[in-house]
């Protein structure tokens, strides 16, 4: 039998199977359509003489479960209650902070910059960084410590509160968080 004709003959069975999976005729039609489109575009990979019906049902079933997994990760927020509590900091401050950081990092001596990048940015252990640099572990620890202190000095960082959003942004975040908890 012609594979294209056989594909079309299985549509009623596919639809019944899709309805049994999702419980909605409208959604079932969408799943059937998607399965048929995938089957049609991959008809060249179907081996004549094998079970076309099983092949189509497998495509439909896989599509259904892929959709189910994707929906499981989504959060329904019909009245925008969750979205209204999200805050996005202005990007220009972060961009400027990153530029300042890059300039300060470039001012560090090469051995300190290398050690700091290996430990802080690349995630190597002190032992691995020492092996890469060809020096003792204590030397790497010392270089990282000096680099961090110099960066703090160059960036005028005096405490942990110097990190994060600027004053006006922090005020908005604190105010919206307090208002959100009152709701």
From TrEMBL:
One of its GO terms (biological process) is DNA-templated transcription initiation. GO terms for molecular function: DNA binding; sigma factor activity. The keyword Zinc does not apply. It comes from the Bacteria. Keywords: Sigma factor, Transcription, Transcription regulation. Residues 100-151 form the RNA polymerase sigma factor 70 region 4 type domain. SUPFAM superfamilies: Sigma2 domain of RNA polymerase sigma factors, Sigma3 and sigma4 domains of RNA polymerase sigma factors. Residues 9-73 form the RNA polymerase sigma-70 region domain. InterPro entries: RNA_pol_sigma-70-like (IPR039425), RNA_pol_sigma-70_dom (IPR014284), RNA_pol_sigma70_r2 (IPR007627), RNA_pol_sigma70_r4_t2 (IPR013249), RNA_pol_sigma_r2 (IPR013325), RNA_pol_sigma_r3/r4-like (IPR013324), WH-like_DNA-bd_sf (IPR036388). Pfam families: Sigma70_r2, Sigma70_r4_2. Belongs to the sigma-70 factor family. ECF subfamily. This is RNA polymerase sigma-70 factor (ECF subfamily). It comes from Tepidamorphus gemmatus.
């Amino acid at each position: 039998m012609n594979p294209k004709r056989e594909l079309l003959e299985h549509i009623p069975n596919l639809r019944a199977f899709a309805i049994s999976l999702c419980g909605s005729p409208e959604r079932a039609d969408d799943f059937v359509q998607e399965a048929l489109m995938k089957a049609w575009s991959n008809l060249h990979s179907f081996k004549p003489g094998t079970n076309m019906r099983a092949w189509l049902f497998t495509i439909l079933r896989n599509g259904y479960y892929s959709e189910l997994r994707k929906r499981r990760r989504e959060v329904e927020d019909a009245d925008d209650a969750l979205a209204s509590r999200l805050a996005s900091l202005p990007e220009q401050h972060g961009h400027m902070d990153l530029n300042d950081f890059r300039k300060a990092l470039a001012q560090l001596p090469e051995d300190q910059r290398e050690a700091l990048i290996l430990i802080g940015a690349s995630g190597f252990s002190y032992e691995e960084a020492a092996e890469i640099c060809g020096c003792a572990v204590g030397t790497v620890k010392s270089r990282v410590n000096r680099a961090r202190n110099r960066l703090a000095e160059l960036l005028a960082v005096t405490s942990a509160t110097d990190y994060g959003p600027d004053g006006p942004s922090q005020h908005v975040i604190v105010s919206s968080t307090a208002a959100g908890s009152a709701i």
